[in-house]
Amino acid sequence: MTSVLAPPPAGSGLKAVPGVGGVPYIGSTIAVMRNPIGTARKRYAEHGQVSWGWLLGQRTVTVHGPEGAEAVLVNRDKAFASGPAWSYYIGPFFNRGIMLLDFEEHLHHRRIMQQAFTRPRLRAYMDAMAPGIVKGVEAWRPGGGFTVYDHVKQLTLDLAADVFMGVELGDAERARVNGAFIDAVRAGTAYVRFPVPGLRWHRGLQARKVLEEFFYRHLPAKRRDGGDDLFAALCAAESDDGERFTDEDVVNHMIFALMAAHDTTTITLTSMAYHLAKFPEWQERLRDESLALGRAELDYADLDALTGMDMVMKESLRLIAPVPALPRKVVKDTSLLGFHIPAGTIVVVPMLSNHRMADWWPDPDAFDPGRFAPERREDKVHKYAWSPFGGGAHKCIGMYFAGMQVKSILHQVLLRYRWSVPGLYEMPLDTTSLPSPKDGLPVRLDRLEQSR
Ligand code: HEM
Q1: Domain CATH for 98
Q2: 21, 58 in Cβ contact below 8 A?
């Protein structure tokens, strides 16, 4: 049965948001978690671009399609706040991370943080991560049942110590910090959302303490000595108006940035590895491209030259958007594509399913990197048709960093290994949190005869 979210104000000319309430607090949560794309398609077919339902305990409006994504993310009326929406999931563990700030305050932090992502800084991060990538990839053990996701996750975590923290860690300290980081991330998807000793939420709070203690301890040396890592960059960052981060800001932003960077990059590489295993002709094309560069290590300038890799990355980000949905809380009554949205509502932009809408993408479920080739550019159909990095004020600040890291890693893998999956294999995705393979993506990994 269709029920409306709230009657629009008389004379406003706005429409009421239709939807299916279902069981209060639960609604379509289980269906969305199990099959986000199928559920979104059904809902779009039944109710159109804007509809509401219960999701994860909240009355939630889902706005399908790029027009809605643009309206929410560009946020001209300043009606959609990121902080209160994201805090529901990750607030206690990623307190005062930049994505949890809004409007003027967010802009103030963003202006300073931008200085840690300038081109010279990115070049320095790329140089800093290169030896760790070679060492990590070289240590992989070829054979059957090589789980790509687990290995890439470990590699990106190890790289974070070099390029994010820039701190020499002993094995025990590394394990302690990495463990705390993993617990903080996991806590966001806890079912029991209050601290019971031994359960995820409690472990997340403990982990936050470990991370804070770690960063505060190393902060004075970072401020004093500088360096080519993100931690040093945040300590030194200064906006054009001379604003700088306090110690507390640096610690909060470091903990958040680690989280924002880690799973997203891991998922992107896993998705690329999966598609390259399913479509070996693309794997060979990318390997030829990497070999043709004639250099063991990528330069910053090479990133644009790897055109096949760029298309595969874009297509993999389209098919599996690492951040599957972007939530916002409505802070004042507003309108969205002609619908009345009352203050207090949660609005979600479902990036994962938006990228698979047949109204915007020909053959939306097919892996076809050529759709991003200059002569096709199917993403040009709308500015927000392809938006794995979001848009507007909160658009991913690490977008170029991500491209740099993903391409640097894949280049080294292509030069050393060939990998495959059985013909009928389909990667089973766990979509209860950020999308990841339930089975870790087991492949057969073979060392190339002549690695370079
Ligand atoms: C392929 C990898 C990545 C993807 C798909 C991705 C995606 C996103 C998305 C969709 C948002 C916006 C969320 C929203 O508006 O609600 C975002 C924000 C953000 N990302 Fe990324 N991200 C990636 C990698 C990174 C990396 C490597 C870093 C850091 C080095 C990073 C740092 C951030 C930060 C700090 C924000 C918050 C920006 C703000 O609120 O102003 N991300 N990311």
Answers
A1: 1.10.630.10
A2: no
Per-residue model confidence (pLDDT) at position 1: 59
Nearest CA to ligand 1 atom 19: 396
Query: Which of 264, 317, 351, 434 is the pocket-test mutation for ligand 1 (most atoms within 8 Å of CB)?
Result: 264
Query: Contact, 127 vs 228, CB < 8 A?
Result: yes
Please tell me the distance from the alpha carbon of residue 25 to that of residue 229, in angstroms, as a whole number: 43
Give the side-chain half-sphere CA count within 13 A for 297.
Answer: 12
Alpha-carbon gap, residue 432 to 181, rounded angstroms: 19
Q: Is residue 214 part of a domain?
A: yes
pLDDT in tens, 215-257: 999 999 999 999 999 999 999 999 999 999 999 999 999 999 9
Structural domain includes residue 384: yes
- Opening angle at CA 430, ends 368 and 93, nearest 5: 115
Question: From the CB of 390, is ligand 1 less than 6 Å away?
Answer: yes
Q: Is residue 142 in a domain?
A: yes
Two structure tokens written together for 394? 């909160």
Quick one: pLDDT band at residue 451, thresholds 50, 70, 90? very low
110 lines ligand 1 (CB under 6 A): yes
**109 touches 253 (CB < 8 A):** yes
What is the rounded distance in angstroms from the CA atom of residue 296 to the CA atom of residue 132?
14
Q: 3-class SS at 286?
A: helix
Phi/psi of residue 61, nearest 5 degrees: -95, 130
Residue 387 Cα: closest atom of ligand 1: 10
The one-letter amino acid at 242: G
Closest CA to 355 of 345, 347, 346, 364: 364
Number of structural domains in the chain: 1
Q: Which domain, by its residues, includes 113?
A: 29-447
Domain assignment present for 120: yes
Q: What is the pLDDT of residues 386-429, one digit of tens each?
A: 999 999 999 999 999 999 999 999 999 999 999 999 999 999 99
